[in-house]
Amino acid sequence: MPAAGAGMAGAGGYGQPGQLPQAEFPAAATGYPTGYQAPAGAPYGTGVQQPYPGAGTPYPPTMPPYQPGQTGFAGPGTYPGAGVPGQTYGGGFPPRPQPGGGPGQRNTWIVVTAVGAVVMLFLLILLGAFVLMRGGSQTAAVPTATATTAASPTPSPTPSPTPTPSPTPSPTPTPSPAVSPTPPPNPGFAWCDQCVNEGFTTQYPSGWSQSSTPDGTGIRFTSPASSEVTASFKVPGATNQTPDQLVANEIAQLPGATNVSPTTTTTIGGTTWRAASADYQQQSQDHIQVYATVYQGRAYLIEIQAPRDQFDQMNTQYFATMLATFQFV
């Protein structure tokens, strides 16, 4: 060992060709470089390399053990640890890793942690804003129901049905009585055309004259044989007297009326008449028969007369036919 150490010193510190010059290996080292632990009683150079407690990166492979009689050192290799004072190297060894990965690695972790914290904070802010927006939109989407009282509809007044006016019935014209063809008059008689203007008709003896009554209320028919043989048809007009009163009034106007009969009822032309008779003095003693009725508010009177001793004959021959053909028109 001493000889080998001397040879290295004399030879300028080289072992084998191509090996970097080294300082003289210490003969009696009192300790191993940091990171190495020699087994008890083991020769120098046979220590086992231990992992470096730090970043977890192991040292390079262990140096080959030293052989007896070996001159110089083994082939080039990476020797961990610090150099011995006075020893020179061609390029030197890289610095030993520092525990904790060094200042650069610590800075990297700080930056990563800060970035992660910022990202987490940003995510939390976004999450909070999203929750607030969701809550606000839900609150706005649900309107508060306000109970409103529905206004009762005002009932429309039911229109009263307009009564349909009944058609005014047209006045039914009163049919005029059909004018029957005038039947031929009885033999020896003729129809009184002028009598129609007074509201009646009758037949009178042919050859008898027609004239107005002395009071001007009717028509008088006079026999050509005697002026005391007459038939008078009077229409005094509207009256409020009864037929009995009309008969009594006519008889009362006769001069010296005697033998006045009670009033009786008879029918002439389909109408009821009241009648009475009396005697009165004219040129001779005459007999008179008075008939009265009220038809449609108008008074109608018939007076037939003749000398007392001729009355029954004149009645049968003329007066009966004249009364039988009387009709209201």
From TrEMBL:
Biased composition (Gly residues): 74-93
Keywords on record: Membrane, Transmembrane, Transmembrane helix
Transmembrane annotation, as ranges: 109-132
Domain of life of the organism encoding this protein: Bacteria
Compositional bias segments (type: Low complexity): 144-153
InterPro entries associated with the record: Mog1/PsbP_a/b/a-sand (IPR016123)
Sequence ranges of Pro residues compositional bias: 154-186
Stretches the record annotates as Disordered: 74-104, 144-186
Name of the featured protein: PsbP C-terminal domain-containing protein
UniProt organism field: Thermogemmatispora aurantia
